[in-house]
Design goal:
Blueprint lengths: L23 E9 L3 E9 L5 E9 L2 E6 L5 E9 L4 E5 L2 E3 L7 H13 L1 E12 L10 E11 L14 E6 H10 L5 H14 L18 H9 L1
Parallel strand pairs: 4-9
Antiparallel strand pairs: 1-2, 2-3, 4-7, 5-6, 5-10, 8-9
Length: about 220
């Protein structure tokens, strides 16, 4: 399946030849947890050799670039165990319910994490953060026309420790360039939001095709129920 960037720029990378089909001939689940699974697949290489490849399967996620009338993005400061520190990020959440539409999940997360609803929604960017070993993909939505609503109680989860701020978009661009902002979907969303704000690009509709949305992990779990 091809996914050209712009007309003519990266079309036909195989020079008219049919691309190799990296067929999975067998596989096994090495570990499965509540958020991801680790698979080992035997894959047929172009020369015919069968090679083992490990893959982290994930539900996928959504994030929200919530841009207010003063050109500020709604940001959260949240502890991330994998890095052992707090990061500035956009509101985000897992797509652990495969029946939930991604934009509906994004709308729900925006209310739950920061107490905001939005009138206008669009697709900003889709991010495959670690395609060498993980199928996680994150769709970043652009939300405008913001209004504050009551935020649900957070209990004792990480959300109870959130710091919520509205940060000027240009400050976030500078933060990404300085290394202060490191969350991948957030960095991509910041630059994309700035490009839309500056009139260089128009965001896609919320129903735009999402080529790499993960499905295997959720489908495997659902089949066992």
């Amino acid at each position: 399946m091809t996914h050209p960037i712009t007309p003519g720029s990266l079309d036909d990378p195989h020079g008219g030849r049919p691309p190799h089909d990296f067929a999975v001939v067998s596989g096994e689940t090495i570990y499965e947890g509540p958020i991801f699974a680790l698979r080992r697949d035997d894959v047929r290489m172009p020369g015919g050799r069968i090679a083992g490849r490990e893959k982290v399967e994930h539900f996928g996620a959504v994030a929200v670039a919530a841009l207010d009338e003063d050109d500020r993005l709604v940001m959260i400061y949240q502890y991330r165990p994998a890095l052992g520190r707090r990061l500035w990020e956009m509101p985000a959440g897992l797509l652990d319910d495969p029946s939930e539409d991604p934009v509906v999940a994004a709308q729900r997360e925006l209310v739950e994490e920061v107490g905001i609803e939005a009138d206008d929604w669009a697709t900003l960017v889709d991010i495959a953060g670690c395609p060498g070993f993980a199928d996680e993909s994150v769709r970043v939505f652009l939300a405008r026309g913001l209004r504050s609503v009551e935020r649900p109680a957070s209990g004792d989860d990480e959300e109870a420790d959130l710091v919520i701020r509205r940060v000027p978009l240009d400050d976030l661009v500078a933060g990404a360039m300085s290394g202060a902002l490191v969350n991948g979907p957030c960095v991509a969303g910041v630059f994309a939001a700035a490009a839309v704000r500056d009139g260089r690009f128009t965001p896609r509709p919320v129903v735009a095709p999402w080529l790499d949305r993960p499905a295997d992990f959720a489908a495997r779990r659902a089949a066992r129920r």
